[in-house]
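Team,

Forwarding the record for the chain on the shared tracking sheet. I've put the sequence and predicted structure together so nobody has to dig through attachments.
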Amino acid sequence: MVDEILFYEPNNKYGFLSNFALSPITIGGFRWKTSEHYYQAQKFTDIAIQQLIMEAETPDEAFLLSRQYEAFVKRDWEDVKNAVMRYVVFEKFRQNVRFTHLLVSTGKKTLREHSHRDAYWGDGGDGSGRNELGKILMDVRDYFSGQSPFKWVKFVDSAKLPTRWGMFKMYGFTETATGKEHLALVYGELDSATPSLIRLHSECLTGDALFSDRCDCGYQLARAMENIVKEGSGVLFYLRQEGRGIGLINKIRAYHLQDDGADTVEANEALGFSADMRDYSFCIGMLSFLGISRVRLMTNNPRKIESLKQIGINVIERVPLQEGNSPYNSNYLKIKAKKMGHMFDESFIK
């Protein structure tokens, strides 16, 4: 069976692929409600007709107006229509970033406009059509899939996640380079005009799920989610980078060395790793998907701040996250401050 996606109606799952999908674009100083509006208007040289189509309330109206004035279609339209379609589809995705992420996330699947009414742009309903729109979409996908921020992750799906603090929406992503699965837990409505409160939380099975007191991770996770709910909106990014990037089994080996007297940095180095193996580059893909460019970052780690700045995220404020000091991790916290530069209040790590 061919691995393919059929699209047609703009309100269906893959409706963003349709030219009728609401996707405002600005071309030549004019605002077009959809790519369909622009495409239909380009059939005419008469400015008045173009204006009527541009101002049409819906893409269906724009389409019908082009049929109404069919006698005035420019003579060379058949020669240029493919170029016009290619241009406007590219602009649609260049200017509507969320749609671009969704397009790239279709991977290598064949895209087909499943229309029994159109055997040129669509597949004719039975697969015999030329599917020229689908071909253009796949070309546009190939282009953007190699560009940042789209190349880093692929969006998979989303679902509600009820928690003890409130209802989050959970977005799933796969990292392109490694295949690792990452989550973004979104609470409330994100406003692009306001810096979002976020936490980049690296997976810690022992601390997050097994209640270990050897680290402060589980405590930080809980407080970060609580802070986001109190704020009214924000995002918890749950990143599959166990053990600062060395993995769960190597983390157990590192724990064994710590049992014998090594500190957290010495243990990693004895196993042939650096103190922190994590890479945050791929986070730009998730942040971009959610429309986030400015953040208030919950962290004690200056490296996270610098990593976000390097990928173009404006860190407006660092929000301290000091939780979970215990007799079992007091030395661990002191080593993070002394050797890794983590920013703690002196009273917290005494």
